[in-house]
Amino acid sequence: MKQTNRMNKRIHILGGAAIILGAILAGLVLSVFLSNNHRVRASQTTDLPTVTLISEMIPTHTTVLPTETMTPSPVVPSAIPTVQPTALSAADWKNWPILPERVSTKMIDVYRAGQENGNKANRFSKVGDSNSIMPSFLGCFDYGENGYKLGKYAALEETIKQFQWSFSRESRATANGITAMQLDTYHWYEDDVCWPYESATSCEYRLWQPSIAFIALGTNDVYMPLAEFDKHMRSLVQKSIDRYVVPILVTKADNLEGDGSFNQAIAQIALDYEVPLWNLWRAMDPLPGHGLRENDVHPTFNNTSLCDFSGDDLQTYGWTVRNLTGLQALDRVWHLLNQGVTSSSQ
Questions:
Q1: Under CATH, what is the fold of the domain 38-339?
Q2: Which residues contact 158 (CB under 8 A, 6 or more apart)?
Q3: How far apart are CA 218 and CA 177, in angstroms?
Q4: Is-contact 205 240, C-beta < 8 A?
């Protein structure tokens, strides 16, 4: 009788365990299904521009500095206030300047601590989705005169030389269709370069030891709750600060959510953590179609160049504007961090 009772007890325990295990497996299957089915067009339309000049590019800096240089100004100078407001509101993010006018004392301290702890002053990283991958985003600046034409923005050559080989680096923290959650949690690589249980972002920072990082996300997150995006973006910013990396947050050019709420969340994070913000949305707003391909989330582009700032491309193509203002944001933040210009606000 006792043996029968023991046997029945074991059966009940095993049955309960099987139910729990089945629930866990069902949850995992549902999670994968939702992730795959809610992946926005950024992963479905990965036909990013194939630039003709890429095949001609030589990995040497042969650009000669012009004899006359000009102070770089944003694409739409009239849209950039000369003095940044002392108090910015996240709700008014559309009117924030395209480029950060100041950096906070906190970020200067983070930057200096990074130099003391082994971060490289001549390196930056990219953390983002398909709009942040090579070669489209900034890659042209590592290929000399075959890669870009600065035109009146010749003063930016100093920043190009300062951060050489970061522009064309294939970041461990960029991928098509990626979300903030995925970059904040365990990495997806099958090699042994990233450590077990290490996020792709932490892996990128450990391997490259940058002093600055662009964090440009949100397009693929819009089918998830805003609160989830906000939580993981804040975690990514904190991961950066913990490694003494100064993050540059980026507003997204699209408005897939319909109400701009994701960009407002990005602006609020910039305020809360006192980190610089590059307002890409405002930079691309004046362009035809907001600088985006029709029914798409990727910028428009010239078939022969993504970084020709000497002609009319800046009034026409999203990728040209994204690459110029991205370089300007890097230039601005780098100089402010080293000049010690401080402010208690964003």
A1: Rossmann fold (3.40.50)
A2: 331
A3: 10
A4: yes
